Amino acid sequence: MYKQKNITDFPAGFLWGGATAANQIEGAWNIDGKGLSTAEVVQKAQNRKAVSMGDVTQATLAVALADKSDVNYPKRRGIDFYHRYKEDIALFAEMGFKVFRFSIAWTRIFPTGEEKTPNEAGLKFYDDVLAELAKYDIEPLITLSHYEMPIALTQKYNGWAGRQTIAAFNQFTEVVLKRYQGKVKYWLTFNEINTGTWGFHETGAIDKALSEDEQLQIRYQALHHQFVASAIATKQLREIDPTAKMGCMLARMQTYPGTPNPVDVRAAQFENEKNFFFTDVQARGEYPNYMNRYFNEHNIIIDMAQDDETVIATYPVDFISFSYYMTNITKEKMDADAVGNMVVGGRNPYLKESDWGWQIDPIGLRITLNTMWDRYQKPLFIVENGIGALDKLDNGKIHDEYRIDYLRQHIEQMREAIVDGVDLMGYTMWGPIDLISFSTSEMSKRYGFIYVDQDDDGQGSLKRIRKDSFYWYKKVIATNGKELK
């Protein structure tokens, strides 16, 4: 029976916090038995409005494997969270974090992905991180695969293009789910799984020299293997720790039509469908019919084992998480204009953009939340949202009102979506402490409430400094989103 509700604000128990990834913060890339990951063979970009994340070939891989330094590979050094996690978690606790999202580096547990026994030193590190979070009553939200996998699996199976990688991954997931049973309530399988359509950084498959259709074949086949592995991990979690929840994670890119011309409206509709394909499979448990035409037109044939569809259907995720940084516009015939270094599409004349060309659209977040809630009716979790900026020290301080303005506007739209009726679990902004940029491997692209004294060349004291936004976010959390000024 319908019962009218009057929701006016964030719910009690809303999970406020921040999000990171192992390959962008940990460092310690070659100690305590850790193996080399795919993230650590991607060179830093030379142009901050370009990308470096997919520029891996057999030739560049050989160079990376021979290079034993971190000079050209900043993700190898991160910000030394591996040795400074207690200091950093204490700062998160000072802000009042309710949740901290981080990832477990697969190569710390299984350096090549196929060892018979896990690396105890790697497991012990995450034991210690979880104990530190528990000390401050901060819930962990753990990503099982965040843009890194053993490079040995790329060399042996071409990453996720090889079906053998499923077994390797699920050996890893079974070990960590058992190890941290009762300590972790919320898990995610693959970070921004849809970006696997962009190639190597997410799939671990080298395909840069191939034609577009050949690339798409490899990428969607790799993604199918991830869908199966995600469902198996969900099955494992339900057997190991039935009280815990498994989520999927999407890079949500709301697409608007460039004009009201119906052909442009249809073009935008299909771009949104392609984005939702991934959550449709992981949350609804089946391949949607609307992808048949796209697969046929691009000669994509998904090779499935006999039980693949059954396992995907039987073990959908419990909640849906996503990142939100920007929106996009499209037309049937696109101009050669670019929104930014993550998406190719037309610029929206009504929006401002960051120094990296990412357009800023707070209302688009409300649109996204309503659209996703209507589509899935499963709890939603915003696990990335933030702005990269060129912060400048001013007498030892960072006055980042621009960051506060950006986050305030997005949080206001989150509240509006909750009033609209959306079931929103929490918000972990990206990233609460300055870290190595995913797309360009810069340090100078700063997101954090906490400044880290390190430059793009890795020089600096690594001292942590609270920015103005640190104190602002502390107030936001303390008032459960009521005080945003």
Describe the protein:
The protein has 15 helices and 14 strands. It is α/β, with parallel strands linked by helices. It has one domain (15-478): Glycosidases (TIM Barrel, Alpha-Beta Barrel). Strands 1-2-3-4-5-7-11-12 form an 8-stranded parallel β-barrel, surrounded by 5 helices. The protein has a two-stranded parallel sheet with strand order 6-8. β11, α14 and β12 (424-430) form a beta-alpha-beta unit. It starts with 14 loop residues before the first strand and ends in a 7-residue tail after the last helix.
Structure classification: alpha/beta
Question: Average pLDDT, to the nearest integer?
Answer: 95
Gyration radius (Cα, Å) is 21 Å
> Could you tell me the strand content as a percent range?
5-15%
Instruction: Please tally the helical runs, counting DSSP H or I stretches of 4 or more residues.
Output: 15
Count of DSSP strands: 14
Indicate the CATH class.
Alpha Beta
- How many domains comprise the coordinates? 1
Largest sheet: number of strands, sense, barrel closure = 8 strands, parallel, barrel
Low-confidence stretches: none
Pfam families: Glyco_hydro_1
Protein name: Glycoside hydrolase family 1 protein
InterPro entries: GH, GH_1_N_CS, Glyco_hydro_1, Glyco_hydro_1_AS
Keywords: Glycosidase, Hydrolase
